[in-house]
Design a protein that fits this description.
Layout: H1 2-55, H2 59-70, H3 75-100, H4 105-133, H5 136-157, H6 159-166, H7 176-193, H8 199-208, H9 213-237, H10 243-263, H11 269-289
Length: 290
Amino acid sequence: MQNTSRQGRQGNFRRAWKAFTDGQFRDVQDSGNCMGLLAAEILIGFIVGTLIGLTGLGGGVLLLPTLIFGLHIPAIIAVGSDALFNFFTKIPASIMHLVKGTVRRKVVIALSIGSIPGSYLGVTFLVHLRTVYGAGVNDFIKSAVGLLLVIIPTLLMFQGRIEDHLAHRQPTMKNFAGMSLIGLIGGFLVGITSVGSGSIIMMMLLLFYSFAPKIMVGTDIAHAVILTGVTSLLHWRAGNVDPHLVMSLLIGSVPGGILGSHLSARVPVLWLRRILCTVLLMTGARMLWA
């Protein structure tokens, strides 16, 4: 009887020890996976920051496809996190332009009057799609992003020719209502994709208004801070932001941006920009095809 009792206690001890060691192993495994994921996120932030510093391409265009296809993050979380990342990365440049006096404050206000409600409509639309279709909202976002990744790189590849063609023509629109309409369209697109806060709005300003290049860039960046700030706040409230992901990306992007700015005088930026636009164009086509 005593032997049976002792064997039972030994059996219980072995089972408890096995459960403990298995749990410990899983904890170590999970910890290793988390460290690997963190390193990947920081590395992606570094690469994206370097490319932004080198080429001047927008963070949303470069980062969003990487988050969706590289890290396999759900598209709606990638959009919200990307918007917050763009907000933080655009703040230093906007401050520099404000100090240099290359920002038209009235234009920023006019654009914001349209872009803030546009962003609200875009995020609300995504939340509605998620409520109705669940994870199907991610397929819609991929299609919308794919379309923009076809349009934006195409416009960027011909941006120089477009600017030369429109340099000496009179602006076709002069009132602030037109700027607010541009903001409304751009805000909606940023709300549903986080892409276009700089490139799409600047292209529309270029087509319909006439500003000096420095003023155009400075005004566009200053407005992008407001737009991405509002958009990221709306996505945050909707539960579409991963703050740990954003923090990891920012940790990598700061030294990356410094390195990219340093290398920009030593690397054939024009050709690198064209290669990146071609890759983005192919990525957009793949997303649409899928």
